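Intended use. Records like the one below are meant for learning the mapping from a protein sequence to its folded structure. Do not use them to infer anything beyond what is encoded.
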Amino acid sequence: MIEAEEVRKDVLHALMRGMEKDTEKVASMCVIEIVPKGDFVTYGVGIPLMTMREPEKASGRAPVAELN
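Structure written out for the chain above:
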């Protein structure tokens, strides 16, 4: 958990879309950073609509990129 005031300004702007100027609101918030590991489970990515009716064909996995 990160206090909202400690988050980089560009990230805070992207999350709050201009409301970051409300210092009272920012002071009452925090940001939770999630670091994914393993694979993202997907469904229907790059699959034709009719194929999505068959879960075994429509489901997939995408590896998570390692951050350095």
